[in-house]
Structures are given as structure tokens and as C-alpha cells.
Design brief:
The complex is a heterodimer of chains A (190) and B (194).
Chain A lengths: L1 H20 L4 H8 L5 H22 L14 H17 L3 H9 L3 H24 L13 E2 L9 E2 L6 H18 L10
Helix pairs in contact in A: 1-5, 3-7, 5-6
Chain B lengths: L10 H18 L7 H14 L5 E2 L7 E2 L3 H15 L4 H19 L13 H7 L3 H22 L3 H10 L3 H21 L6
Antiparallel strand pairs in B: 1-2
Helix pairs in contact in B: 2-3, 7-8
The chains are: A mainly alpha (190), B mainly alpha (194).
Chain lengths: 190, 194
């Protein structure tokens, strides 16, 4: 039961924050993909760099024992990612922002969710036939990271270098890009 | 400058708070993910018309099995969540709807009504037909969730949570999505203005 309460608190916070970043506004997302407005890109890069830096810093100091969950790298990640990218660009939504957009009362987000439920359903039906194909060939050992997570079942490409240097270095690059990218011009605002 | 009333936050405020929710969730429970829950909702709806879809099975690792290969994978992990919708991941996504609702409710200057169906950048290139917007968004939703399931995650699970952990799968997913999305958006929305 306590996990359900955590889910309510964290889900609500994540939904609230996503809405306030502007990510649930397809106008912002499409203009990011058209390379006209880098504001959302700054937010995303900063958030990834910042959270990654804290995660590996706290871990290296022994303050935190993170619940890592590394996904497998396989051919389907690339093929699925390409299909995802086309749908993302034509609609201006991704799964998370459509849910938040629907909560904020956007009708187009509801239509997206409906299409998404059908798309996921079709995937459920064809998965049995895809299962044995090349799509599921692993890349670089499958569940692999750059920085060493210290978790036995995950591989690391840079195992011998302390994780905080690897993750910290990447994080600083991401944060630096976030600062360098130009902010939105006011006349471009709604 | 009231953060709750603002329509959008400054990018640094957004970045810090988004980063914090990612680190807090991975510290306390597990990394954030969304697209799997579309499958769980499909499973719940499907089960309501076919009670055989998910059955208790002591031989399965998670205690549930399904004749559907996807729900049955990973020892019946999805099958279990379909049978028990009050689980962390599903409730998390439902709560995101409430979060979006609250954020917009507190917003001081509401958006233009038309803008909430057809974004400005769309209207400038593709016109103001609601039907056209709905049809293309429907197809977009289909492709996004089909692709996300094939890839095993979406912008939340692969891109943000994945890259935070320095996962190879996260970088691959981000690379592939932008590789397809940037040219698609540039071709489809080539209006003259900004």
C-alpha cells in the first residue's frame, strides 16, 4: 500500500513539473525538433546531467544505494526509436507528455492516447512473431552502461575508471551544452 | 513571480526540478517509465472482455501467466500488473494526469482555446482543420507507442532515466528518435516564420 502512496506523490509531482516545463505543449516540442527553439532541449539536457551527476556522486560517497534499472540494448531499440521519432514529430507528443497534456485538458492529447493504446495493442499481438527475429539481437552485451553501476548483472564499458569520473564527465558536458544552446527569443513566444 | 501560477518555468528551474524528481524516484523506488502502462491498460481492457487473458500460475516467476506472448514475457511481469492495477508503475502514470490537471488549473493566464487542439506551429503549416489534426495525432500516437514498445521504453524510460544511468540503450534510443524526428518535423512544418 505504501508503494501506491509513493506512486501518487511522485507521479503527481512528475506530471506537474512536466506541464510547467512546457514539454506537454506540442508547439514547444515541434519547434524543438525543427531546431527553432532549444529551450526544451536545455531543460532535458540539464535535467539528465544534473540527476546523473547527483546519482553517481551520492553513490560514490556511499550516501545512496540507487535502484538502478538498466534496459537492454538491442536492434529493436534503434528500429523502434526511428518509428517513435516519426510519430513524435508528426504529433508533438510522447507517452509521458500526452498523459500530462490530457490532464491539462488538451483534446489532441486524448486522441494521441487513444492511438497509443491501439499501437501498443497491435504490438502485443505481433510480439510473438517478432520474438525470434534479428530485432532482438543484443548490442554491446545488452544491459550495458558507460559508468560502472556496481551492479553485478550490468556490464560496464569503462569498468576500470571510477564511475563518478565517467558519469560526472558526461554530466558536465550535457550541462555545458544546456547553457550554450540559445534560449527562446521573446517574439517566438505565444 | 509565483512558480505555481506561472505558465512555464525558466529553463533552469525546470531543469533542476525535473532532475530532482528523477533522482528522488531512482533513490526511493525505481527509474521513471511511462510507455509500459499503455500495455497494462490495454491488458486491463482486454481482460474485461476475456477473463482467460491473465491467470494465476504458480509455475510462473511472477505468479501469473497469459496466452498472449507479450503479457507472458519476463515470467509474467506484465500479466501480474494487469491482474493487479493498483501497483506502483500504473498508479504513477495515473497520478501524472492529476499533476497535469493541477498545474494547468493553477496557471494564471489560460491558453487560447484553439491552441489547445491545434498548436500554433501546426496551424501555420497545416491549417486549422480539427479532423486533420486528430487523424495525424492518432497515427502519431500509434507509431509512438508501437515504436516505444519495440524499443522497450520511451522518452522517460530510455532517454531520461536511461541516460541518467549512462545506459547504452538510452543513448541509442535518443540517437534514433532524433534522427527520425528532426527531418520529419522540418519537412512537415516548413512555415515561413519562426
Amino acid at each position: 500500500m505504501s508503494s501506491v502512496i509513493l506512486a501518487l506523490v511522485f507521479g503527481l509531482a512528475f506530471g506537474f513539473i512536466l506541464q510547467k516545463t512546457g514539454a506537454a505543449n506540442p508547439h514547444r516540442l515541434i519547434n524543438m525538433l525543427r531546431l527553432k527553439d532549444f529551450t526544451l532541449m536545455k531543460v532535458i539536457l540539464f535535467a539528465i546531467g544534473f540527476s546523473s551527476l547527483l546519482l553517481f556522486l551520492f553513490m560514490s560517497l556511499g550516501i545512496l544505494n540507487p535502484h538502478f534499472s538498466v534496459k537492454t540494448a538491442y536492434m529493436g531499440v534503434i528500429v523502434g526509436g526511428l518509428i517513435f521519432g516519426v510519430g513524435w514529430a508528426i504529433s508533438g507528443f510522447c507517452p509521458g507528455t500526452s498523459v500530462v497534456g490530457a490532464g491539462a485538458g488538451r483534446k489532441d492529447a486524448l486522441v494521441f492516447i487513444f492511438g497509443g493504446l491501439i499501437g501498443a495493442f497491435v504490438y502485443m499481438l505481433v510480439y510473438g512473431d517478432l520474438k525470434g527475429t534479428l530485432l532482438f539481437n543484443k548490442i554491446l552485451g545488452g544491459k550495458t552502461t558507460l559508468a560502472n553501476t556496481g551492479v553485478e548483472k550490468y556490464n560496464s564499458l569503462l569498468e576500470s575508471i571510477p564511475a563518478i569520473y565517467v558519469a560526472g564527465g558526461i554530466a558536465i558536458v550535457l550541462i555545458a551544452i544546456a547553457f550554450i544552446l540559445p534560449a527562446r527569443k521573446m517574439e517566438n513566444d505565444l | 513571480m509565483n512558480l505555481l501560477k506561472q505558465k512555464e518555468w525558466n529553463w533552469k528551474v525546470s531543469g533542476v526540478l525535473l532532475g530532482l524528481i528523477f533522482i528522488i524516484t531512482v533513490a526511493v523506488v525505481k527509474p521513471i517509465g511511462v510507455s509500459t502502462q499503455f500495455v497494462i491498460l490495454d491488458g486491463i481492457l482486454w481482460k474485461s472482455v476475456n477473463s482467460e487473458l491473465v491467470v494465476k500460475d504458480d509455475t510462473a516467476k511472477k505468479g501469473y501467466s497469459s496466452p498472449n506472448a507479450y503479457l507472458n514475457k519476463s515470467g509474467g511481469k506484465y500479466a501480474k500488473n494487469v491482474a493487479n492495477p493498483l501497483n506502483y508503475s500504473f498508479v504513477f502514470v495515473v497520478a501524472m494526469i492529476i499533476g497535469g490537471f493541477l498545474a494547468y488549473s493553477m496557471q494564471e493566464n489560460k491558453d487560447d482555446k484553439e491552441e489547445r487542439v491545434i498548436p500554433k506551429v501546426w496551424r501555420e503549416s497545416l491549417g486549422d482543420s480539427h479532423l486533420k489534426r486528430y487523424i495525424i495525432v492518432f497515427i502519431g500516437g500509434f507509431l509512438v507507442l508501437f515504436g516505444a514498445r519495440m524499443a522497450g521504453g520511451c522518452s522517460s524510460g530510455h532517454m531520461m532515466s536511461g541516460m541518467m544511468q549512462t545506459s547504452i540503450s538510452g543513448y541509442l534510443f535518443a540517437f534514433a528518435t532524433f534522427l527520425a524526428a528532426i527531418p520529419t518535423a522540418m519537412i512537415l512544418f516548413k512555415n515561413k516564420g519562426e
